[in-house]
Write a structure and sequence with these properties.
The complex is a heterodimer.
Chain A: H1 4-10, H2 22-32, H3 37-47, H4 49-72, H5 89-93, H6 98-114, H7 120-144, H8 148-157, E1 162-165, E2 170-173, H9 177-189, H10 193-201, H11 204-216, E3 224-226, E4 233-235, E5 249-265, E6 271-274, E7 277-299, E8 303-339, E9 346-384, E10 387-409, E11 412-417, E12 427-441, E13 445-456, E14 460-461, E15 466-482
Antiparallel strand pairs in A: 1-2, 3-4, 5-7, 5-15, 6-7, 7-8, 8-9, 9-10, 10-11, 10-12, 12-13, 13-15, 14-15
Helix pairs in contact in A: 7-8, 8-11
Chain B: H1 4-11, H2 15-36, H3 40-57, H4 68-86, H5 104-110, H6 115-124, H7 127-138, H8 143-150, H9 154-171, H10 175-180
The chains are: A alpha+beta, B mainly alpha.
């Protein structure tokens, strides 16, 4: 106090000299600041998940679409459909192609067996294909006798398929109805002049080329080829293999449980650099477990909505190492000695003075937090046989309850029980993304695994620290029931 | 000096706010730093250390406990002392004997000095004397606090201060200077 003038003179602010601007020094300043590379890496690790999910979903959707197109083309021939082998044009004239036809048919039948659904569109396709078949085959039949060049035209849009009835072990050619009628008439009359007239005019080479071309065409299996002595007709597919789950809406209830890991940057100041407090804190071992009771509603088109109640127990550990300097007032201390220059006498002023005590502290404490999460997630489900894959995104509300722990509050170590001294938010809103793989067994049961990633939508402001949007990952198993 | 909004933005790491904070605080910080260091290179190092520490530990500033300027002042001093200790420039002679009296008149005379003369005096002063002189006279730290900060005994601090003031008296208070300030 006595030397305020010296102090004021030495603390007198003046314009900064050249070379002391922010532009000149900022590089050195930021170089001395703690790096945030770890944070960036974490962002990289977790944010690619969403685009990856979208891409995977898109790829699987495209795959499913292409599979659906393949499935809609075939028209299934039931084993009951019989055609007199001897009365078919090709069967009698083209014995060498039987093996090829059989192999195609077996493939076709195999495909049909694997088909788990056929849409109404496929019915139309089949009918159209049958009509085209009639027209094109008629053309092809006539052209085949003339030149192989014209048969190339046949291949452009024709959809032809030879069908072998597995029961009767016969090969047939799907013929146009008018041609069938002709054949039928011929059968009735007991002769096949028209057909037999054609046969000699088709040499083997021509036939083979024609069938090679036919082999390259898309496969069409006739659902039904009915022979009637009076009328031969080609009908469309009689049966459509139904979806496994024909209900428009399906409910599921599942219990999940597993491991979780979470991270919240800046929950604690990592360094306390103050003259009276120099310490380092570190938050570590962020893990826990969760139990999730969830219910899903699935629509026939594959979309689903998921919700439930998720209880999470988070563990963390705070380690602290530092020095605490406490100021205490000590009475009866010499605070000033004055000397009278004229008399040479000294006067001593006594009073209370501040005394600093330095305490070294080092500890590690475990914290426990409870969270109840209420998510609502919308997504899409893809199914393949007994397996299904779900991917979705949504929001969740997290309710916090802090049990016990230690933190740094107001630049001091603070123990808490029940109420966190800094974390004032009782709840927060999170962005959720979810991926599930399920395997169905029995009639209605399924087991699976579930992955969830959630991140707070905004930073959380504590009394003196900003928490940088905490995020959490949960991985666990589940068992469920389909209603 | 800084409003709450600026402090919060600085905590979040906004670089424009860093610039604003620097431009606001730099003259004050430099006024302290220049007393401890003589060369521009050392002063730049100190400025960078101080602002890096400021941007990092601003979240620890508690407005209810004091004004920002005094908090900043202590931070600057702390960083300056850390740098001096790091560079081993602090040569403190341990007191063999406790001086029994402090020449208060020297400090009274110093009050008459201009800023420029004080700067020149500090530039000439040995680092050990200067540091303890600044901590004791300007920052008003007790010898116990100085001892803790520098890692020396309080008695050593007291002795160093006495010797520093004696050094000023012997080296600065030349006849010409005393005449100039009307002290003789």
């Amino acid at each position: 106090m006595a030397y305020n003038k010296i102090k004021n003179n030495l603390r007198q602010e003046a314009p900064l000299p050249e070379g002391f601007g922010f532009d000149d020094l900022q590089e050195g300043i930021y170089a001395r600041m703690p790096k945030e590379e770890k944070k960036k890496r974490r962002f990289f690790i977790f944010w690619w998940l969403i685009p990856m999910c979208v891409l995977s979903l898109g790829a699987v959707y495209i795959f499913q679409q292409s599979t659906a197109i393949t499935k809609t083309n075939p028209v299934v021939l039931p084993p009951s459909a019989h055609m007199d082998h001897s009365k078919t044009a090709v069967a009698t004239s083209q014995k060498p192609s039987d093996d090829i036809l059989k192999s195609e048919i077996s493939t076709s039948l195999d495909k049909n067996e694997r088909s788990d659904k056929m849409t109404a569109q496929s019915k139309n396709n089949a009918s159209n294909a049958a009509n085209n078949l009639s027209k094109d085959l008629t053309l092809g039949w006539q052209e085949m006798n003339r030149s192989t060049q014209n048969k190339a035209d046949l291949t452009k849009e024709t959809k032809v398929k030879h069908v072998l009835n597995s029961d009767a072990e016969m090969t047939s050619l799907a013929l146009p109805s008018d041609r069938m009628a002709t054949l039928s008439d011929e059968k009735q009359t007991g002769s096949q002049p028209a057909l037999r007239d054609h046969e000699p005019s088709i040499n083997d080479n021509t036939h083979q080329q024609a069938f090679l071309l036919l082999d390259k065409l898309p496969l069409i299996t006739m659902q039904s080829l009915t022979f009637d002595h009076s009328k031969i007709s080609i009908s469309g597919p009689e049966t459509i293999i139904p979806l496994k789950k024909s209900a428009a809406v399906q409910w599921e209830l599942a219990g999940c449980g597993g491991f979780l890991t979470w991270q919240a940057q800046n929950t604690f100041p990592s360094d306390i650099l103050q003259p009276n407090h120099n310490g380092k804190t570190q938050l570590a071992t962020n893990h826990g477990y969760h139990i999730f009771l969830q219910t899903d509603v699935l629509w026939k088109n594959g979309f689903y909505l998921s919700s439930g109640l998720d209880y999470q127990k988070r563990y963390s550990a705070i380690s602290y190492e530092g020095l605490l300097v406490t100021n205490t007032l000590e009475p009866d201390q010499i605070i000033k000695i004055e000397k009278n220059l004229l008399t040479g006498m000294e006067s001593v002023t006594r009073g209370s003075s501040s005394v600093k005590t330095t305490t070294e502290r080092k500890f590690r404490k475990n914290n426990v937090d409870h969270i109840i999460s209420l998510p609502i997630i919308a997504g899409y489900q893809l199914a393949y046989r007994n397996w299904s894959f779900q991917c979705g995104a949504g929001l969740s509300v997290n309710l916090f309850s802090h049990q016990t722990g230690t933190t740094i509050a107001q630049n001091e170590v603070a123990e808490y029980n029940g109420k966190h001294p800094l974390w004032q938010a009782a709840w927060d809103l999170n962005l959720e993304s979810q991926a599930k793989v399920k395997y169905n067994f029995g009639q209605n049961m399924y087991v699976g695994t579930q992955f969830r990633f959630s991140r707070a939508l905004q930073n959380q402001l504590l009394t003196d620290v900003t928490v940088w949007r905490p995020y959490q990952i949960t991985i666990g198993g589940m068992i469920g029931y389909q209603f | 000096m800084l409003d709450n909004h600026t402090i919060q933005a600085c905590i979040k790491g906004d670089q424009r706010t860093h610039r604003k904070v620097y431009e606001t605080c730099a003259p004050y910080v430099f006024a302290i730093v220049k007393n401890y260091f003589n060369t521009d290179d050392d002063r730049k190092d100190a400025m960078q250390e101080v602002f890096a520490s400021l941007f990092t530990s601003l979240k620890n500033f508690d407005q209810t406990k004091g004004v920002f300027k005094s908090w900043l002042s202590r931070l600057v001093v702390y960083q300056c002392i850390s740098l001096i200790k790091k560079s081993n420039n602090l040569q403190v002679t341990y007191a063999a004997e406790i001086e029994d009296q402090i020449p208060d008149t020297t400090l009274l005379y110093l009050e008459q000095f201009s800023t420029q003369d004080l700067d020149k005096m500090l530039a000439l002063m040995p680092q050990g004397y200067k540091t303890i002189f600044l901590l004791s006279v300007i920052e008003e730290y007790s010898h116990k606090e100085i001892g803790e900060l520098l890692g020396i005994a309080p008695e050593t601090s007291r002795s160093q201060l006495f010797r520093g003031i004696k050094w000023i008296k012997n080296n600065i208070f030349t006849d010409a200077k005393m005449v100039q300030y009307g002290l003789q």
